[in-house]
Amino acid sequence: MKRDTSQFLIPVKKENTDNNSYDINPVHQIVEGRIELGYMSLADRLSNEKVVILDGYVGVDWTEVVDSLISILKKKDLKVNAIDINKCLKSETELSALAEPYLGGDDPIFGYKTTLNIKDYFDDSKLANIRFENDADIKIVYGTGASQSNIEGYLVYFDLPKNELKFRMLANAITNFGFSKIKNHKQMYKHFYFVDWIVLNKEKKRLLPTASIVVDQQRPNNPTWMMGDALRNSLSNLSKSYFRVRPWFESGIWGGQWMKERFAGLNPDVPNYAWSFEMIVPENGLVFGDENGLLEVSFDMLMFHEQKNVLGKAAKRFLDEFPIRFDFLDTFDGGNLSVQCHPKPEYIKKEFGENFTQDETYYILDTKDNAEVYLGFQERIDPAEFKNALEHSYKTKEILDVEKYVKKLPAKRHDLFLIPHGTIHCSGINNMVLEISATPYIFTFKMYDWQRMDMDGQPRPMNIEHAFKNLNFERQGKVVEETLVSKPFVEAFGARWKKVHLPTHPDHFYDIFRYEFDDEVFIETLGQCHVLMLVEGSAIELDLKDQSQTFHYAETFAIPAATGSYKLINKGNTTAKVIVSYVKEDAC
């Protein structure tokens, strides 16, 4: 088994779906060339090359790749000499010593973003001793890090989406880069996040400009591929028009039924859907397609290739890191999220190596049955008493009277709750939350989780000590309603439209607006990347100078800064409401 998940594998070709609702597999048409299918066509393309470098991301099934290609090439009466770059790695003892400072010891979640580079993984003497057989027709160096061989050749880069990497991890089908043993899954993911992804993203960025071919290896025995120039030109096209990443969905202990009931194409045979990653740079991918097939590459390839076009003014500060994320938290007929907070900017930098912190907001997309949000502290909170209560509950498994310490506010559609760092919070039952946040997304300090077991039957890790180094106890009583609930106001309007400002907290580096219109509205980017979602209405049409695209209710998409301006046209029979978020001018 190569993947362990209830989620469907992305199809090779775009399936005929209902064009009038949320699309779980958005596709961007390539601007030149074509998507090719299978190892046979890839081998045909490589058969005239003398030296080939097969490089790629952690999690790629190199056994499948190399066995498939060699088998086909041999049938063409070609002698192949293939060298596994893994044989040039340092010993696992040495690699463990390199990685250890960044892995946070026994902590199940947190480490520190590494400063390692991929060259640190390889033994220079082993690289220097690479020797090919002189009579080989095709000489191949393959494996993650193959370009470190310093051998000139035809570069083919194999990419793997992060969701499929995780599914392979859950199936125990892969290991961390350079290691042969499978770890506990939480420890393995931590190693991916703080070490492997950092190292390999730097290498991916270095290789992207020169890759002759890029391959999507997520479908077992059925890769898709395209020429590197065609991919780079397609990325450049997106950076001046629009893009929507492929969302992915997961069940969770508090998950709900809202997405399961409304989003066609999801597997219905799951207990719930807790969240969807709508647009998170480290996790999502971009799908390109034509009549032949679909090819997915990581979202960060767009940032590596066109960060200035995408981010405009904000590129100077954020570089390759897309600063804003959109995700869904679904508790319809589900459960409360954990009681939690997020780190201060200086804390996340010092303790975990992140460049900016996890400042969040909850935009309430939908509710039912007296939905509520836990936010801020009750008046005259005693921090020591609260900490003692949390620790006692954790040790004894007794139920904690959360409302004795934490305020609970009613939630209704289109409310915006502000959750800057240090704010205690969680969503209650029967909310469909659009979380508009800064991009970091794993730095949640859980203090209480309603005495539940996680989906794997194990207790969810608590982070009480981390939390108490970051909690802001001044956010209590009336201060909560005054400072942590956005107060919308109309900033501009016309005959059949208005622009509503939903002010965020001063600690948030991003702002949020809502355009409400019956017919159409014209918007200028003013040098900023806009992230948008239709939060009320059935569909809107994005009208650009030379193209258009329809988006449906709850779909997230982005307009790069370089696009300059765009028009939104209401395709429904009621007023359309569209959320737009971008970096504040003074935060660039």
Describe the fold and architecture.
With about 600 residues, this protein is α+β, with helices and mostly antiparallel strands. The protein folds into three domains: about 210 residues, 3-Layer(aba) Sandwich (Rossmann fold), CATH 3.40.50; about 180 residues, Jelly Rolls (Sandwich); about 100 residues, Jelly Rolls. A hairpin with a 7-residue loop joins strand 7 and strand 8. The radius of gyration is 25 Å and the shape is globular.
Distance between the termini: 46 Å
Sum up the overall morphology in one term. globular
State the domain count: 3
Radius of gyration: 25 Å
At the fold tier of CATH, the topology name of the largest domain is: Rossmann fold
Low-confidence stretches: none
How does CATH name the architecture of the largest domain? 3-Layer(aba) Sandwich
Total number of helical segments? 14
Q: Which sheet architecture does the biggest sheet show?
A: 7 strands, mixed
Number of strands: 31
Instruction: Provide the structure class.
Output: alpha+beta
Helix-residue proportion:
10-25%
- CATH class category name of the largest domain: Alpha Beta
Strand order, largest beta sheet: 2-8-7-6-3-5-4
Strand content: 25-35%
Mean pLDDT: 96
Task: Please describe the structure with a list of short key phrases separated by commas or semicolons.
588 residues, alpha+beta, Rossmann fold, Jelly Rolls, 7-stranded mixed β-sheet, 6-stranded antiparallel β-sheet, 31 strands, globular
